[in-house]
Specification:
With 162 residues, the protein is an alpha+beta fold. Helices cover 38% and strands 10% of the residues. It has a domain of 104 residues. It holds the Pfam family AHH.
Length: 162
């Protein structure tokens, strides 16, 4: 669909511009973890998927905004290698490796991380920046260990992290 741009602000010399692409509002190809993967040294073609230990949606959640703003001021990066791990990107690889697969959303995992972050957030105003960063690291270490030991809920048919 075309929309007129009568004074040429958005279209330059073109008086019309295309409507916004709604695919830009979502991540249809699952590329949101590309920066994380690059920071972790991901290898193309190995079948592994980049997984944020603290999910991106929680880093953007208004309930945790102040925590992550503080952490960013001291150099913490949600796409940094310390916030990531590799998980199998297919059912076959997940069953071979015996750890959860990552090829779709994982609301139950995110809910468990949300609970841990909520506990930390309730204490955040009494913590120094260093203590806050260490609290997030504890959550990451907890999640990493549970993923490695297959202790989070997975789909029994596919092995996908739920």
């Amino acid at each position: 669909m075309l929309h007129p741009d009568p004074i040429g602000l958005a279209g330059g010399l073109n008086l019309y511009q295309y409507a916004p692409n709604p695919l830009g509002w979502v991540d249809p190809f699952g590329l949101s973890s590309c920066t994380l993967g690059r920071n972790m040294g991901a290898r193309t073609g190995d079948g592994m998927a980049n997984h944020h230990l603290i999910p991106e949606e929680l880093m953007k959640d208004r309930n945790f905004k102040s925590i992550f703003e503080r952490l960013k001021k001291i150099g913490w990066d949600g796409d940094g290698a310390s916030n990531g791990t590799f998980l199998p990107g297919s059912k076959d690889l997940a069953s071979t490796m015996g750890i959860p697969g990552h090829w779709s959303n994982h609301n139950q995992y995110t809910g468990e991380i949300r609970n841990k972050l909520s506990q930390l957030a309730s204490q955040a105003n009494r913590l120094s920046d260093t203590q806050l960063a260490l609290g997030v690291k504890e959550i990451q270490d907890w999640a990493r260990k549970r993923l490695a030991n297959n202790l989070f809920r997975v789909d029994p048919n596919t092995g996908r992290l739920l």
